[in-house]
Amino acid sequence: MSISRRSFIYRCFYSGVLILGSGLFSRISRAAWPAAAFDETEYLPALKGLIGDEPLLEGHVTIQAPEVAENGATVPVKISTDLTNVEWISIFGDKNPRPWISRFYFHGKSKPFVSTRIKLRESSNVVAIVKAEGKLYSTKSAVRVTAGGCV
Amino acid sequence: MAQKEMKIRAKAKDGKTTVKAIMYHVMESGSRKDAKTGELVPAHFIKEVKAELNGEVIITAEWGTGISKNPYWSFVFDGGNPGDTVKIIWVDNLGESGSGETQIK
Q1: A3 pLDDT above the threshold of 90
Q2: Do the strands A68-69 and A135-145 form a parallel or antiparallel pair, or are they unpaired?
Q3: Mind listing the pLDDT tens digit for each residue in A65-87?
Q4: Half-sphere exposure for A90 (CA within 13 Å, toward CB)
Q5: Which of A16-30, A54-68, A73-87, B54-68 has the lowest mean pLDDT?
Q6: DSSP label at B90?
């Protein structure tokens, strides 16, 4: 079978894209960025996309967030836990157009702690989920937003 | 693409090190409309971040569009000596990347 010029060019381009995608812009984590769960527009399906049907246990997780946020575009949150062997901490805003905000994996000497600033479209719960020794722990903190973030 | 600027500080105290960083990035979600044109502003946001201590990865992260513009991130690790290098590297949804590093004080 002969390869037409157009097809050849197309194949060159396509394989180039694959090489760029896999090599040059080298990925930071080994697993693929979980697009489906990040793109989910409802909280519960987004949560399910992350943890499946695993039960969520209470306690051991602390969220520091303001009760009232004047600017939903930048809400400071701190998440900490007294659990050991923490694999990851994940953050949700349950009324956001894309509720899943982030996940942080802890290796080596790092402490299971996150401090960052998130967008909240409206008054909602910040939900933190911690995975430690195969179990999931969760807590939430209500934030009243007086001016919504452009999310 | 040129490396973006980042502000990063690391300070050792009482056997642990606290790192604070601000990454300069628009963090466009893709669902915001331009005030003048009414057109949707295309998504442009950091998707993956990692932190290294002396070249060893200590935290990796996946971010969605819900992290604020010019992301602030602080983390803590055990140990760390003055002069040790802490580095943060990010990659966004357009394949652009940036990094910043500092020595522990």
Answers
A1: no
A2: parallel
A3: 999 999 999 999 999 999 999 99
A4: 24
A5: A16-30
A6: E
* Element at A7 (helix H, strand E): helix A5-19
Q: What is the ipTM of this complex?
A: 0.94
Q: Which residues in B have their CB inside 8 Å of a CB on A?
A: 16, 29, 31-32, 47-51, 53, 56-69, 71-80, 89-91, 95, 97
Which chain A residues contact residue B80 at CB under 8 A?
109
Flag if A101 and B89 touch (Cβ within 8 Å): no
Residues A115/A83, Cβ–Cβ less than 8 Å: no
Chain B residue numbers with beta carbons less than 8 Å from the beta carbon of A96 are 66
Question: Considering only CB atoms, which chain A residues are within 8 Å of B61?
Answer: 102-105
β-pairing, B46-53 vs B56-63, is: antiparallel
The answer to whether B51 and B19 have CB atoms below 8 angstroms apart is yes
Of B31, B61, B89, the CB nearest to A151: B31
Predicted TM-score (pTM) of this structure: 0.86
Report pLDDT digits (tens) over A24-38: 444 666 678 999 999
Q: How is residue A126 annotated by DSSP?
A: E
